[in-house]
Amino acid sequence: MITILAIESSCDETSASVCRDGKILSNFIANQTIHEKYGGVVPELASRAHMQNIVPVVDAAIKEAGIHLSDIDAVAFTQAPGLIGSLLVGTQFAKSMAMALNKPLIAVHHMQAHVLANLIADEKPSFPFLCLTVSGGHTQIVLCESPSSMKVIGETIDDAAGEAFDKSAKLLGLPYPGGPLIDKYATSGNAQRFSFPEPQIPELNFSFSGLKTSILYFLQNAGSSNVYKEEFLATEDEKKKFIADNLNDICASIQNRIISILLNKLKKAALQTGVTNVCIAGGVSANSGLRKALQETGEKMGWQTYIPAFQYCTDNAGMIAITAYYKYLNKDFTDLSVSPSAKAEWS
Ligand code: KG4
Ligand code: ZN
Q1: Handedness of CA 192, 194, 198, 204 (dihedral sign)
Q2: pLDDT of 289-324, one tens digit each?
């Protein structure tokens, strides 16, 4: 029996999970609500909140799993990428625990873990599979040939899909993180009502900055145009009224465009690689419109599609634990001199 304790602290969620032989026994997540009023994650506040949360979160994960400290065979943690102050808290805690328990330490790449979250469910994709990883900081198409062999074959050249959701929400006056709110309002909106342009980006890469600008002009003109036109500029009150009167349709139309940008590239990737096992991962994979669109596209294209359970889409330690389990099988351990890294380079 292999029992792993995993810690995730790369951004603003403090999470701990216990996994036994590839099955998640617990996945405890403490969300940091302090950032809401600032419209984005404040790194200094995130590090402080991790410091407060880490002991109770690890304790809760161990209790929920019904294990004892002496059952732990390895301690895993998110090593990169992320906010450096946040990563340091989880890294230091994991190192201390590994040292105290005299057990191996396993360093996990956060983006690889998002991909392997698809291996948590009983019904897993077989290799090779494609994974569209869409989070607040990243948008990638990954070709995964085994748990230890993954290649990024497409990525965003500017904003991430989650950022596109959050920045659009901010323009609509919605609090951070706006992605789940756009999802909620979009449910009862007409996605065909407003049209936003689809960027023409080569290969399998993405761009979302043009969409953001077009939404900005659209709102400045109270919906009459997506192009900057001084003569159309609405007053603040007109803009607010237009948003309030049309919020559901605006959210549905924005969400619809983000989804079509993502799925068009995913279709291209499947055709180019010939791979028909297709997964999504990352915080944006919690989006109900994207989940539905993936299933519909999969049926049309003859794909087998996979989506992690909700709690394994946004940042969580369960995905770190499952990745660490496969690393454990390969004896892929790290020594206690390891440092975290803010950068996204793949090992
Ligand atoms: O993977 P994640 O939890 O953290 C990062 O590693 O970035 O992703 C967070 C992102 C945020 O941008 C958030 O707005 C977005 O995921 N998100 C959503 C939904 N739930 C979370 N975006 C759209 N619809 C959702 N339901
Ligand atoms: Zn993430």
Answers
A1: negative
A2: 999 999 999 999 999 999 999 999 999 999 999 999
